[in-house]
Each structure stands twice: as structure tokens, then as C-alpha cells.
Amino acid sequence: MSLEILSQLRSGPLKASRKITIAADLTEFPLEVLELAPTLEVLDLSNNRLRSLPDDFDRLQNLKILFLSQNEFDHLPEVLGRCSQLSMVGFKANRIRVVSGASLPPLLRWWILTDNAIEELPPEIGELKSLQKLMLAGNQLKALPKEMINCTNLELIRLAANQLDELPEWLLTLPKLSWLAFGGNAGPSFKSQNPIDIRWQDLTLGDRLGEGASGIIHSAAWQNDGTILDVAVKIFKGEVTSDGLPESEMQACLAAGSHENLVGVLGQIVNHSSAQRGLVLPLLDREFEILGGPPNLESCTRDTFESHRTFTPSLILKIAQGIASAAAHLHDRGISHGDLYAHNILVDRSGKPVLSDFGAASLYEPRSELGLKLEQLEVRAFGCLLEDLLDRCLENDLTLMLRQLQQSCLQPNSSLRPTFAEILREITDF
Fold first, then answer.
1. Quick check: helix, strand or coil at residue 134?
2. Hey, where are the domains in the chain?
3. Contact (Cβ atoms closer than 8 angstroms) between residue 401 and residue 426
4. Domain 289-428 has CATH 3.90.1150.10
5. Is residue 9's pLDDT more than 90?
6. Which of 42, 50, 130, 364 is the most buried (most CB within 10 A)?
7. Options 3.30.200.20, 3.40.50.10330, 3.90.79.10, 3.40.50.300; which CATH number does 197-282 get?
8. Are strands 345-347 and 353-355 parallel, antiparallel or unpaired?
9. Measured distance CA(268)–CA(243) in Å, rounded
């Protein structure tokens, strides 16, 4: 299909296209794409072997979204800085070492630079007033430019698997920052764990239940001391994901322990036939459903919901109580979930919520000054969750009280936000 699209570009049938996707082992940029300047808004040239863009690439003045992941760029092309409408740029898994200030599109909102070799970011990043989502996991960053304090609309940042000695204090004061991943760096401390070892030969895999960025999940039967238990098994891919390292996810899962509103973990797999890492998890009842959908290109940092989806005030309260309880438990153990979203929450028919997916989780010293700041940052994510649910609910006295809590969690001054323990005490009395 990609070769067919390339052929059609050359022969003219796609002259008014708004979106083009080509993955055809390209080593040279197809100049025919530039002839689509009047209409083209989305260009995806991922999974090729491109190393550069033409100097007149900025002819694409209507281009809003550009994907060039899995190519061979060693620097971010400066011509991008002249693309006036470009708001989403993806260069995941290239060879990028150099990012100059001239390469930053002025309206950049969502920037994906995961799995490269970037050692520093330019100070001009502080001029990106629209920047909301910044994916930097799997690079060589030792510090962040202090000018980023001016990125006051930044809501999500992935810094895992870099070489940071510490998180800068100003980062945790950004008024909208809600989702942060920093595992796999030199600075933040990790807990040592002594997990239960579960032998691979004692597991019999069943149906494939799903696949995420970090691994594949199957149902399984675990033969444990003569008893057969139904479980779920997650086998990690061993690659840097958009959130960070599978190793960090495993550590956080094991450190989280048991809580009725967490999926939990039974143990880690040993003696895998292919030496892969994995976890054994409880198998949730099939009645559990995902609360919401992940963000899309338009919503950027906020979850998506089916247009007809609504929630009752009592259900929202039950979800809020369960997730606040789970988050309080995690932060008491020095764990920041990093991805507190509706799309990572499962709910059963009774309304019981279960928080899952520790792919963006990070560990820190419990009850430390840093820990309090990280918790108050994650409280804003909880406030966003409340807002999403309450926006799909008819108001009554209960929702008005929950709205007040939502506003408290979303305060721009993070030091004024409540802790999860305080939230839990407040909503227990609702």
C-alpha cells in the first residue's frame, strides 16, 4: 500500500490529500509530497531510512502533524522551525544527538523524541508556550534547561531512562504538570525488593489478553504447590517505551504490594525459556471494563470517552474514593504512578475501581520533601480525572462537593493542593 501511495503521488491522483503515510524503505524524501502544500495536514514517513528533509520542506505551511519515527536522523532538521502550523512532531527511535533552537516549531504542542541519544535541549524550548506533552525517555540528558520554567502549559513529561542526577526544583512547580515519569535515572532512589520467584515451567499460557507498550499479557494457569490458579502473565519486550524502561515498571509493581484498588502482583517469572522478564498478576474478573480511552491527537493530554458515556454521582464518588485510596497507598511507599488516567482504571459492575499499568511509575524516598511535591503533582492528575468524569454527569449536591475537591486539586500552586490522605478523609465524609 505504501508503494502504491508513492506511485499515486507521482502520477497525481492524491493531489488534494490531507494525510499521507508512506513506509517503503525510503532513503530520500519524496519531493512529490511538497506539491500537496495547499492541503496536507498530516504526514507520516515513519519506518523508513531517511536522514534529512529538503530545505524547502517549510512549503508545507498547512502541515500540523509530522511523524518521522524509526528513521536515521542524527539531528532535528532546522527547517521544522519554519513550519508555522506544526503542532505535533514525532522522531522516536532515530539517532538524534543534536537539537538546535532553530528546529523548534513555534506552535509545538506534542513533541516525541523517545529513544534517541540527545544530550541536551536548547534554551529556546522555554519559548514553546503551547507545549503540553514532551516525550524524552531513553536519551542521554544530564540536565534540563532552566528556561523550561516558562513552559507553563506543560502537563506531561517523560524523563525516564536518561542520566539525570536529580529533578530540578522548578520542574515540580510548573502549574499544570500532572504526569511525570523519571525512573531509570541516576538520581531518584529505588527500593530493593525480594519478590516471590515463579518458575516459567510452572505456568501454562492461555489466551492473549492484550498488549501495551512494554509487554504482552496472557491468561495463564499457575501450578503452585499442587494447586492450579488462574492468573495473568505479562512478558516484557525489553525495549525502551514511551514511558521508560520495563525494569522500572517491574520494580514499581513489586514495590506497590497489595491493595484492593490496585491490580497487584503475585511474583516475578524466573527461568524463562528465552530469558525474558515477566510478572505474574491476579486475573481480574471479565466484568471489569476500562473506564475511558487514551488521549488522541486532538485531546493531547486528556482521556477520551464515547460520546454517549455518562456517570452517576454515586459512581464517581466510589471511583474517587478507590483511586484516592490506591494513590495514598502508593505514595506512602514512595511510588509515583505517573500515568493516573481513566484509561488505566478498570471498573466492575459495582463501581469498584482498580488502578493498573505501572509503565510510567517511578520510585522515590518515602515521606521526603521531594515525595510531597511528587504527590501534589499527581493530585493534579486526580483532579483532571474528576473533571473528566464530572463533565459527563448531571449536577446535584454531591457533584457540587466533588467539583470543589476538583478545583482544590487543580490549583496552579502545587503546594496548596491536598495530599491523597487528605482527599480520602474529605470524600469519606461525603
1. strand
2. 2-181, 197-282, 289-428
3. no
4. no
5. no
6. 364
7. 3.30.200.20
8. antiparallel
9. 21
